[in-house]
């Protein structure tokens, strides 16, 4: 049997007294988690040791007032993506940006995500745990770094690392878009188990405010279906044994379209007791991955979590409105004893800052935007090989090429509005058929359109800065970050009227609303194409007028940072009443260290 090493882990500083004590007194412990509890050994010792660590921290409090344990809440965000280390889209952005904003408000914050690659800034803690995944005992290891006031924990195991060649990019979920790794259930089961161990076994001393393990009184924030087993394991493996009895779980839905539906017979892989089967049970009319009866991870996550939150108030309403927008979980969401809360996302104002953006040649703010934009547009045109002309309005699009994002509707619309005085630059990766469609546009309209089927962060910044308008023609959009980034760069959104786009873009003030689209994904609805063409026409009519300048000003005057959303998250999580939880402080958006300590992938 392998062992947990309850080793202290101190990164970038001297080893503290309590960590020495920890090393000497705790030594090695052996622990195996199964739902039968047979192998959960030495729990009492583990608790005893953790108490010793806490006591030791308190002694320190007396002699060194720098350690202020117990302020705010202990938060553990768990996610398959964590930007900038791993990101295929907005999930990575949110887990990159919200935790530092919570930390800046005085909370102790950890994120737990897989180590998909050999991140150069994350160190081996040498702490290992053994967990039962499928029918095998697996030893996993924790890597760590402390960035922007947050303990970033990376779960190290070949099940994550061996899948990825080079940088993670889009290889997180499967070998290509639309194709999942066969062992995704085992991978994300392991992530959930690791996340339940991390706050207990890692003795982190990252900064002067907190030391020792996070302990039991934590709030887990699970994100999307990959982490939906977390409340299930919490309730069946830990709480019956007196561990995490106070802990609570908030499940955040970033996208109900991805639910983790698998064959019903796979339930045994999850190592959960039969009593939970009904929470997972799901029947749909699809044949993928098998016909008929299935398990649905997201469904179980919704039922077993203490609260469910999503990324905008309007999407929260859409989720319960019916099977179309709730993707057949609307009834479950209506049946839980609390309403789904909606908190609009913020954006990372450090990565997306027009005054300091390392990917653009001309920096600007609200006072200089009208001078800088034409230069940035010319730079973008030159970069993608379009005719350089600062007077021609340019429309951008950035997004995953899935039905959700409506790139197919956009392509159909481009054919109709490209005759106007306009250029279009489209950036995205995803389904091959959509990639081909956008690439074909530049063959058809070489002087007017570019379609780049790549995941290219510098180009995303160049488009956001250089375009006049950003088209967001989503069939559904839980929140959307593209329009937030665009507005901060004085680029006016032209967006579908769905989800967070309704909450964040004001018609005629900060953008143009197209109306809602059909959510039927199999085909492009000609009415939706007409709606885009008409709205693009309306937007182009305003181009270069005083109203256009006013809209740019309105866009750039907004505070789109995580500061406001983080306060709302705080209120929501405090309402869970976890022992020792306290309101935070009025912090800066990002912890002070962020400026010199920004993570790189
Ligand atoms: N080809 C490419 N090259 C470079 N960068 C690219 C890119 N394609 C996408 N990106 C980047 O990925 C992010 C996408 O953000 P979205 O909010 O559109 O997310 P997404 O739909 O993936 O996430 C889901 O989760 C988020 C977070 O909650 C919700 O906002 C959203 O509505 C929901 O669908 C942006 O930072 C964008 O710049
Ligand atoms: O940050 C971007 C999005 O990342 C997540 O979505 C991924 C999803 O959770 C994965 O399951 C997978 O989705 C594929 C799906 O499993 C498969 O059956 C097929 O339908 O194709 C899908 C796309 O490949 O990949 C998604 C990312 O592409 C996260 O859950 C979302 O909220 C984020 O928007």
UniProtKB/TrEMBL annotation:
SUPFAM superfamilies: UDP-Glycosyltransferase/glycogen phosphorylase (SSF53756). It holds the Pfam family Glycos_transf_1. The keyword Chloroplast applies. InterPro entries: Glyco_trans_1, GS/SS, Starch_synth_cat_dom. It comes from the Eukaryota. Residues 75-334 form the Starch synthase catalytic domain. CDD domains: GT5_Glycogen_synthase_DULL1-like. GO terms for molecular function: alpha-1,4-glucan glucosyltransferase (UDP-glucose donor) activity. HAMAP family: Glycogen_synth. This is Starch synthase, chloroplastic/amyloplastic.
């Amino acid at each position: 049997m392998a062992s947990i090493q309850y080793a202290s882990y101190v990164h970038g500083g001297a080893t503290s007294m309590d960590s020495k004590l920890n090393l000497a007194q705790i030594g090695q412990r052996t622990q195996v988690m199964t739902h039968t509890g047979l192998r959960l050994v030495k729990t009492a010792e583990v608790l005893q040791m953790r108490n010793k660590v806490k006591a030791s921290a308190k002694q320190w409090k007396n002699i060194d007032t720098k350690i202020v344990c117990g302020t705010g809440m202990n938060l553990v965000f768990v996610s398959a993506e964590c930007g900038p280390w791993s990101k295929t889209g907005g999930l990575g952005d949110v887990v990159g940006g919200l935790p530092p904003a919570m930390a800046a408000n005085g909370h102790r914050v950890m994120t737990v995500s897989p180590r998909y690659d050999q991140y150069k800034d994350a160190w081996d803690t040498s702490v290992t745990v053994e967990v039962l995944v499928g029918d095998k005992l697996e030893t996993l290891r924790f890597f760590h770094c402390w960035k922007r006031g947050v303990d970033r924990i990376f779960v190290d195991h070949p099940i994550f690392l061996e899948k990825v060649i080079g940088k993670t990019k889009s290889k997180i979920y499967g070998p290509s878009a639309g194709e999942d790794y066969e062992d995704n259930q085992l991978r994300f089961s392991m992530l959930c188990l690791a996340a339940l161990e991390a706050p207990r076994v890692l003795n982190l001393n990252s900064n002067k405010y907190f030391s020792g393990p996070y302990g039991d009184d934590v709030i887990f924030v699970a994100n999307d279906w990959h982490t939906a087993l977390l409340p299930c394991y919490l309730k069946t493996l830990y709480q019956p044994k007196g561990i995490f009895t106070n802990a609570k779980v908030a499940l955040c839905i970033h996208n109900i379209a991805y639910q983790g539906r698998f064959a019903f017979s796979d339930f045994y892989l999850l190592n959960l007791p039969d009593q939970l089967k009904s929470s997972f049970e799901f029947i749909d009319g699809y044949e993928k991955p098998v016909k008929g009866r299935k398990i649905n991870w997201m469904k179980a996550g919704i039922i077993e979590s203490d609260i469910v939150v999503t990324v905008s108030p309007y999407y929260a309403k859409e989720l319960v409105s019916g099977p179309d927008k709730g993707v057949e979980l609307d009834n479950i969401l209506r049946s839980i004893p609390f309403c789904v809360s909606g908190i609009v996302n913020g954006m990372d104002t450090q990565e997306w800052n027009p005054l300091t953006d390392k990917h653009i040649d001309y920096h600007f703010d609200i006072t200089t935007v009208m001078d800088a934009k034409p230069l940035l547009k010319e730079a973008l045109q030159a970069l993608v090989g379009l005719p350089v002309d600062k007077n021609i309005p340019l429309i951008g699009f950035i997004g995953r090429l899935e039905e959700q994002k409506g790139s197919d509707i956009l392509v159909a619309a481009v054919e109709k509005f490209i005759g106007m005085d306009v250029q279009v630059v489209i950036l995205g990766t995803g389904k091959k058929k959509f990639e081909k469609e956008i690439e074909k546009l530049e063959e058809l309209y070489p002087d007017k359109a570019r379609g780049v089927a790549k995941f290219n962060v510098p180009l995303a910044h160049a488009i956001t800065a250089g375009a006049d308008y950003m088209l967001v023609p989503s069939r559904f959009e839980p929140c959307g970050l593209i329009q937030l980034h665009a507005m901060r760069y004085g680029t006016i959104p032209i967006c579908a009227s769905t989800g967070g786009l309704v909450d964040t873009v004001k018609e005629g003030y900060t953008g143009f609303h197209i109306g809602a689209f059909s959510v039927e994904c199999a085909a492009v609805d000609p009415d939706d194409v007409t709606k885009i063409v008409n709205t693009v026409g309306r937007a182009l009519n305003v181009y270069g007028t005083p109203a256009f300048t006013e809209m740019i000003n309105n866009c750039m005057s907004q505070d789109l940072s995580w500061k406001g959303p983080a306060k709302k998250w705080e209120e929501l999580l405090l309402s869970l009443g976890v022992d020792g939880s306290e309101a935070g402080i009025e912090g800066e958006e990002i912890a002070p260290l962020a400026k010199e300590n920004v993570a790189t992938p």
